[in-house]
Amino acid sequence: MRRFRILILLLLIAVCQQLTAKSQRLTYYPADSTRNTGMAIIVCPGGSYCWHDMEHEGREVAEWLSSQGIHAFVLKYRVANISAFCIGYRVIGLGNKYPNMLTDVEQALQYVYTLADSLHIDRARIGVMGFSAGGHLTMMSYTHNRTEYKPSFLCPVYPVVTMSHKKYTHHRSRRGALGVWGQFNRTKRDSLSIEKHIPDDCPPVFLINCQDDPIVKYQNSELLDSALTAHAVPHVYIQYQTGGHGFGASEVKGTEECRQWKNEFLQWISNLNQ
């Protein structure tokens, strides 16, 4: 009986947290004024659609981009939250799930577009960059976008891609995005499998991952690479042998090999805008 009461208490706390939770939050990191490129990037940290890595995949990424003359906006989009994942209270229909996170990135794009003139941002140079589940959201910011505000380039880093492939799906992210019951719905799984929804007008994509990734199987990026190729979407795909997962913009996490991605991205984006 005592355990049951504790469980009910935890459930009530989780529901109250969810009901009082705010939607998306953007943290702005202005471009270095001496190097302002007029470019802006919305950064989507990873976390299996259950939490956010706001350090290595958020703040550190934004500070790096800012130092390179790129305006950065770190998006804390709505996720299931750890309590929802552990307790499973979304069984009764409460909690964040798709399309909440998509709505958040759409609103973030609209916000950046609206402020572009005042911040000296070129509307033709607004992109989205994301990590792991945030990489999945990065791709959805175009493939599933329901508004007129769309990114001009995309940078998914070790992204979650498929939610329907039996061998390669990252199940925690799928459950985070679709909910306790939605994860078993084949139609919903297919609807969020990015490799099945690449449009011919998809903007340029910079894609990287590591073959030794222990969290999100490297084949996710290979599926995306193949889909982009099939639709003749201009893109670069770099697969590092080592580096694992979750290194973000860290100077110490991952390996020396995978940390090259930042220089590779800067070179790519420089050539893209010539």
Account of the protein in words:
The chain is of the alpha/beta class. The chain has a single domain, classed as Rossmann fold. 41% of the residues lie in helices and 15% in strands. It contains nine helices and seven strands, in the order αββαβααβαβααβαβα. It has helices at residues 2-20, 55-67, 82-87, 100-119, 133-143, 171-182, 186-191, 219-230, 261-272, and strands spanning 25-29, 39-44, 70-76, 126-131, 153-157, 205-210, 235-240. It has a seven-stranded mixed β-sheet, with helices on both faces. Strand 4 (126-131), helix 5 (133-143) and strand 5 form a beta-alpha-beta unit. The longest helix has 20 residues, at 100-119. The radius of gyration is 18 Å and the shape is globular.
Helix run count: 9
Distance between the termini: 68 Å
Any idea what the shape is?
globular
SSE string: HEEHEHHEHEHHEHEH
Strand content is 5-15%
Name of the CATH homologous superfamily: Alpha/Beta hydrolase fold, catalytic domain
CATH architecture: 3-Layer(aba) Sandwich
Category from helices, strands and their pairing: alpha/beta
Query: How many separate domains make up the residues?
Result: 1
Instruction: Characterize the largest beta sheet: strand count, sense, and whether it forms a barrel.
Output: 7 strands, mixed
Find the count of extended strands (DSSP E, 2+ residues).
Answer: 7
Strand order of the largest sheet: 1-3-2-4-5-6-7
Into which percent range does the helicity of residues fall?
Answer: 40-55%
CATH first level: which class? Answer: Alpha Beta
Overall mean pLDDT score? Answer: 90
**The CATH topology, please?**
Rossmann fold
Rounded Rg? 18 Å
